[in-house]
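In this section we walk through a basic example: taking a raw amino acid sequence and producing a predicted 3D structure, encoded as discrete structure tokens. The instruction is simple. Fold the sequence below.
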Amino acid sequence: MTIILNNNNYKYETEAVVKLFIPAVRFNFLIDERDADDDVIMTRMKQCGAYVYFYAYIRENGRVMRSSCKTEAEGFDLKNGEFLMCRLLFLLLCRFFDTKPRWGLLTGIRPVRKINLLLQKGLTESEIRKEFTEKYYVSDDKTDIAYRTAMVQQPLLPSFDKKTVSIYISVPFCPTRCSYCSFVSHSMDSAFKLIPAYVKALCRELEILGEIVNSKGLKIDTVYYGGGTPTSISAEDLFRLMKKTSECFDLSSIREYNVEAGRADTITEEKLAVIKEMGATRISVNPQTLNNDVLREIGRRGTAEEVLRAYELARKLGFDNINMDLIAGLPTESFESFKNTLDRIISLEPDGITVHSLTLKRSAGLYRNGRENITNPACEMVNYSIEQLTGHGYNPYYMYRQKNTVDNLENIGYARPGRESLYNIYIMDETQTILGAGCAASTKLVDENNSITRVMNYKFPYEYINRFDELMTKKDEIRNFF
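The resulting token sequence is shown next.
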């Protein structure tokens, strides 16, 4: 499919709208339709006299459809033009494909943040719901789950405090790479030799960040160990990293300490004991599915039985805030299979359950056969999860969306009251500075105007290790911010 951008620069926005209807496809971009010889979508903007005109056009398999609108040129700005163009294209594609995405025109990853901002402006619930359904064409059910999530977040969102920050620590290794995964993570087979140097470098970065935090009088609010799978490394290396964390930062008043224990095939009693001893207050044990056939299909080692044993072991060791991740729409997963997984997980009574929708990312193996993976009952699975989880006392507390998500769905974290992950809320709402350490970690510096400055670490472990000294010069941006 070719996208023509005629007399406008709305490339990102146009592609985002088109992907709502044509996911998992790579697009060619041109500025003149005469250069295209295949199926095309065209957007065009033209000022004529007192008006600015917008045109949208689609040709696929010989079928053609057009649409247009206009607005007064006086007072026109490009941001308003972006919305008008996207709305025109969205409504045209709704007619052409005879469907209406339930998230409507909202293509961004943070729909709940939009609600939080509207609440800050003083809009009432009815006004917010009207804006979502009438301006952005969001369905009633998606508007409802987004609003409910915002209501859970409201008392948990921090007031702005430049001196309070959270820490994210990346351990980018996994036993194997799952076919749906696009994270910068290396399988243990290929990256084993990198781990000693990586742990050494990461400890040094924690020392440098600790020097900045202490010299600037910063207060640590939450800590999050992610990846990858942090428990892929040995118990000794995990202890070394977590001990270094406690040495470099004052954790005496933190409100939350997360470690993604993640895959059951990496979880041992020794590693859980380290995590517990070093002060973590919340962990994840992530099955994704309890169907062993599906686990094999996606290249994930381990079994459902190992997940259940790992969960029981964590409870035995005293963890009282455990989250479990599931994915709706995995290849070969049926609705009945997903239902069985969710029902079994609910029966375990974890403190949180996160339901992700399968996303076909370009760097993931599933993307190559993406169109084959968008015909599963993911929507039915997600609807069932909303009904069952809210019915069993779990409240939606954070949400995000991604491009190329099957059925244009969303990812929702649910938790029992008082068991919400503050870090997950903050990273999605972007209301608190987060200092990132490790490979592919991103530091987000948030100022009083909610403007964000990002300081990115190198993407790959070997680059992080080999160019470490060069990378550390970027820390001056953090020092200067405070």
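Looking at the output, two observations stand out. The first strand starts at residue 2 and ends at 6. The chain has three domains: 2-97, 111-147, 156-471. In the next section we compare this with other chains.
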